[in-house]
């Protein structure tokens, strides 16, 4: 291929005196946990050429991810004024979909979740370049070398979304380095002409043909005395470019369709004409809610603690995030989208600042309802104690059974059952035939059996029990069907023994007496779950559901 030096290109890219040209050069060659990129450090040769051409150059070789971020921050600070930008980056890249990262030399099998820590997003480099449309060149080089990557990442550059006005040339690291370092004679190539010379590389993005990608500068060494006729047009050309750039910068600062059209009316074939038309097209394009949501959430710069709080709040108001770990995975995104859908927002799965506040407010209100429920629970316990004093505390069997009918999971339920179990047939004056006939009816467990008991003992110790059983048999059938559904829901959770033991530990820590924390959900555990569900305003079934487990998790913090 025909090679083109970055030194020569920077003469082409040179700017008017009021501008600040800036260059960023990163050459990563010697990786700690991957094969070396053979020509990575060759990028530093181009850095010297850029600096000699008057570019404020930020450069470094064999950089960790942290060092790259610091260097990029330095470079970005040099692009506040108008000017041109050159970004040259060589090293190992990784990608996932349309997201790509330049990896630091300390990268160690990064996963998709850890990619931002292991490297720098290529999208960030492109966004910086996009601030100088029509005057930005990005060169990216890598090699197919061994590198271990974790879940969600693939080696190399993926498909990148190139902003308007940015020229991107990419390919083999050695070829990119040569393209950036060898000499060329023509200093006035358009973006299309530049791409044509990059025969073995991919050239994408802004490829205008009408004007130089960045105009040639008339340097101070121009022999004014021997060529005065040439000096005046050159000075006029530079002044004209300065005026056009000033109009363009004004249009960009306004960032409206009218502003860009005003530029085009004055400079229909101007250097920034393509960028202006692209900006108008972007403004006419319907807004993408998902992209807006992503940008809004990114602007919040949420820390892991803040993400955990959002997950807790969503769980509190009934949206399962599949864990409270500070990582917004599929479960969290689905929960956010579900909340957005329920509250009349576009279900993007990305949270905005106002939405974050609304979620927190709803969670606080829900916690307030739980607090109110606690007060109501206190009243319920007071009534529980009063009824015990009137019935079970007297010690007779009828009183104990009356208490258990009203409060099967009450404060004194365990005590009542213990007394009944130890009393035999002699409690409360119940005669032996009364007790024997009742036991027989219970064993038969049929409507006919309970009617036989009532016929023999219309005023017996268990007569009220028999009448309630007979009147509620249909209700009992429905309750049994509901119990079976709740049991199936719990089984579908697939909780292992460790998780079941953890649930019992949580219940025990709340003083709900679930029995031994052995993962075996016996009668004590079921009563503890019912008590917890009742206190938290959940459906009282005695079986775990996703909502019950989620609330237990929230209550543990």
From TrEMBL:
Listed transmembrane segments: none
N-terminal signal peptide: 1-19
Keyword RNA-binding: no
Keyword rRNA-binding among UniProt keywords: no
Pfam families: Peptidase_C14, PG_binding_1
Keywords: Signal
Domain annotation Peptidase C14 caspase: ranges: 22-98
Span of domain Peptidoglycan binding-like: 305-358, 501-552
Protein's name in the database: Peptidoglycan-binding protein
């Amino acid at each position: 291929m025909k090679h083109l030096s970055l030194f020569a290109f920077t003469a082409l890219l040179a700017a008017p005196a009021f501008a600040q040209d800036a260059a960023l050069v990163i050459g990563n060659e010697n990786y700690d946990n991957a094969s070396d990129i053979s020509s990575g450090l060759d990028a530093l040769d181009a850095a010297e050429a850029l600096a000699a051409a008057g570019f404020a150059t930020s450069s470094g070789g064999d950089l960790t991810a942290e060092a790259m971020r610091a260097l990029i921050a330095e470079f970005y600070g040099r692009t506040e004024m108008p000017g041109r930008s050159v970004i040259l980056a060589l090293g190992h890249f990784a990608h996932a979909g349309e997201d790509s990262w330049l990896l630091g030399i300390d990268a160690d099998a990064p996963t998709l979740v850890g990619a931002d820590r292991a490297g720098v997003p290529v999208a960030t480099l492109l966004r910086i370049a996009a601030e100088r449309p029509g005057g930005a060149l990005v060169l990216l080089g890598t090699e197919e070398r061994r590198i271990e990557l974790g879940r969600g990442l693939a080696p190399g550059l993926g498909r990148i979304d190139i902003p308007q006005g940015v020229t991107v040339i990419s390919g083999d690291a050695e070829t990119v380095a040569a393209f950036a370092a060898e000499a060329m004679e023509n200093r006035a190539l358009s973006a299309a002409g530049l791409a044509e010379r990059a025969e073995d590389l991919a050239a994408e993005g802004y490829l205008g043909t009408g004007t130089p990608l960045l105009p040639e500068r008339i340097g101070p060494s121009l022999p004014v005395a021997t060529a005065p006729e040439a000096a005046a047009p050159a000075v006029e050309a530079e002044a004209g470019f300065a005026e056009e750039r000033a109009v363009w910068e004004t249009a960009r600062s306004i960032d409206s369709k009218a502003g860009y059209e005003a530029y085009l009316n004055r400079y229909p074939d101007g250097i920034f004409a393509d960028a202006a038309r692209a900006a108008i097209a972007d403004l006419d394009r319907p807004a993408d809610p998902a992209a807006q949501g992503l940008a809004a959430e990114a602007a919040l710069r949420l820390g892991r603690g803040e993400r955990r709080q959002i997950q807790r709040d969503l769980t509190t108001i009934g949206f399962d995030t599949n864990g409270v770990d500070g990582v917004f995975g599929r479960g969290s995104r689905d929960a956010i989208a579900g909340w957005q859908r329920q509250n009349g927002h576009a279900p993007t799965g990305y949270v905005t600042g106002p939405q974050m506040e609304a979620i927190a407010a709803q969670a606080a209100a829900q916690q307030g309802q739980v607090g109110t429920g606690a007060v109501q629970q206190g009243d319920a316990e007071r009534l529980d104690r009063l009824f015990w004093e009137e019935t079970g505390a007297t010690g007779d069997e009828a009183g104990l059974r009356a208490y258990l009918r009203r409060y099967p999971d009450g404060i004194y339920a365990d005590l009542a059952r213990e007394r009944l179990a130890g009393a035999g047939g002699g409690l409360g004056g119940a005669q032996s035939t009364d007790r024997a006939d009742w036991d027989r009816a219970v064993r038969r467990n049929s409507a006919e059996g309970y009617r036989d008991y009532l016929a023999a003992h219309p005023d017996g110790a268990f007569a009220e029990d028999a009448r309630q059983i007979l009147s509620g048999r249909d209700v009992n059938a429905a309750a049994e069907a509901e119990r079976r559904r709740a049991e199936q829901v719990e089984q579908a959770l697939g909780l292992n023994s460790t998780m079941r033991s953890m649930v019992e530990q949580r219940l025990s820590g709340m003083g709900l007496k679930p029995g031994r924390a052995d993962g075996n959900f016996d009668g004590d555990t079921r009563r503890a779950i019912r008590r917890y569900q009742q206190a938290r305003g959940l459906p009282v079934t005695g079986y775990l559901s996703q909502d019950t487990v989620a609330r237990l998790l929230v209550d543990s913090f």
